[in-house]
Amino acid sequence: MALKSSSADGRTRSSIQIFIVVGLCCFFYILGAWQRSGFGKADNLAMEITKSTGDCNIIPNLNFETHHGGDAGSSDDSDSKPKTFQPCHSRFTDYTPCQDQKRAMTFPRENMIYRERHCPPQEEKLHCLIPAPQGYVTPFPWPKSRDYVPFANAPYKSLTVEKAIQNWVQYEGNVFRFPGGGTQFPQGADKYIDQLASVLPFTNGTVRTALDTGCGVASLGAYLWSRNVITMSFAPRDSHEAQVQFALERGVPAVIGVFGSVKLPYPSKAFDMAHCSRCLIPWGANDGMYLMEVDRVLRPGGYWVLSGPPINWKNNYKSWQRPKEELQEEQRKIEETAKLLCWDKKYEKGEMAIWQKRVNADSCRARQDDSRATFCKSADVDDVWYKKMEACITPYSDSGSSDEVAGGALKVFPERLYAIPPRVASGSIPGVSVETYQDYNNEWKKHVNAYKKINKLIDSGRYRNIMDMNAGLGGFAAALESPKLWVMNVVPTIAEKSTLGVIYERGLIGIYHDWCESFSTYPRTYDLIHASGVFSLYRDKCDMEDILLEMDRILRPEGAVIFRDEVDVLVKVRKMVGGMKWDTKMVDHEDGPLVPEKILVAVKQYWVGNSTSAQ
């Protein structure tokens, strides 16, 4: 029997109300949320945030209506009426600005260039609000969301037909059901992962971060979650309509992306495991360039899994309906490149093979004299944003002995979340010592505790997909760590320090991005967005309006935003979002009203588009 999501005419109309009751000692901040929900009924999520005198003692100066309405003498007229942003036309419901299909077709198909990021110039950017589709509902909570997605949220049935025999997704009533199958694991991801677990150390926390290339609807990442492995899944926006959108609706980390002509937006030595299951990436092409990019992002000692063609081609070429000579040549090139990279093959059975990257350069001395081994010359291996991918090998970091892990060994997860990361211990991050790193973490624990007092929904399971727009060293995500949620840690490309490698060393995931451009995701894919210092960082770099409209695009209806910034910045932000169908409240810093940094809490109202909307 199919689970039923709510119908538009069978529910109490959604609304978000934010209000404050000031008592003699305490402040009461109540977030009342009658939300459209995948449960099939409206959920009264009214939460009392500072309920007792005890809470007041913890943060005695927390004021939910800060005294700063605007700076004296400021050119910003805080009392003037904000600009009102109109809804975009309903044809933009699933608009992805930097992966627009029409624009993509104007670029070369060679090396998948047309599927890469191609963002609109300033004069072509939309200055309207992307609408939700008619009937949109809040997704089911995790773990139910892993298996069920409301049809109205991503109304695309093509994969239910195209991938029917592979068990990707099925349409049942008014929901999609995801049985956990995939092209290479039609019997389910759990059985497939059991096969992986016979080789890979999932159970002891050694393998924590994974990269799934050409992920489909991200069933591998969905089921690895129960093994305490967090997976960065990516796939292009192509003929497999809405695959990444389905992944995010399910509550699984994913971005729109492709192996093409530019480097992946991840740091070196990031992932404990990389995976391809019939991902259609030509691994042997371009002198092994794509495998060399996998090698760059794999940690020393990390694993690469390839399942499907051309593995074990002798037994499978007939069922794959491909010439055996072609498959033989594909596998030869893969094996040749893997040997050049000093990967050791650990497993080959059926249609699956697993290689392991060696731990340091000392264990791979032979390739130093191999004329085919070209080493990358770049001084900064993490400088990857829009940089061309190269057919070169990323050198190992120095190691002290032949059995020492290059760059430093990691603790197993969850210990590594708060252990000193090797990049910090080695002094690789300018200005970040062991002591300042520990102080940083303590500060973010305090910040997150304050957030939880402002909005108790943070710990309730209501927010599954969370984004930190300026993640620093990952303090926000580490303090939030929970099986109920995950955080996409974004390190801006213009940040003073390149810290994304530290985030991965902590056992978290993230991505490089420039907030002057749109993010590589579908609309309505995040439940909660955290923006600490974002607008101060991008002051004079690009238009605040563009960044806020992008935040609105990727935020779900009734999703929340927490801004942390200087008060003069937040006054401008608050005024602008006043015309974006957001409700806001300004909050003092947890250390009191004299601190110039403030917190702005916002909730996006529920609304859907129609065919008569503007633009």
UniProtKB/TrEMBL annotation:
Key word Ligase present: no
> How is it placed in the membrane, per its record?
Single-pass type II membrane protein; Single-pass membrane protein
Q: Name one GO cellular component term.
A: Golgi membrane
- One BP annotation, GO: methylation
A GO molecular-function descriptor? methyltransferase activity
- Major localization class: membrane
Q: What compartments host this protein?
A: Endomembrane system; Golgi apparatus membrane; Membrane
Query: Where do the TM regions start and end?
Result: 16-34
Keyword Cell inner membrane set for record: no
- Keywords linked to the UniProt accession: Glycoprotein, Golgi apparatus, Membrane, Methyltransferase, Signal-anchor, Transferase, Transmembrane, Transmembrane helix
List its EC numbers. 2.1.1.-
Q: Which family does it belong to?
A: Belongs to the methyltransferase superfamily.
- What is this protein's record name? Methyltransferase
Annotated organism of origin = Populus trichocarpa (Western balsam poplar)
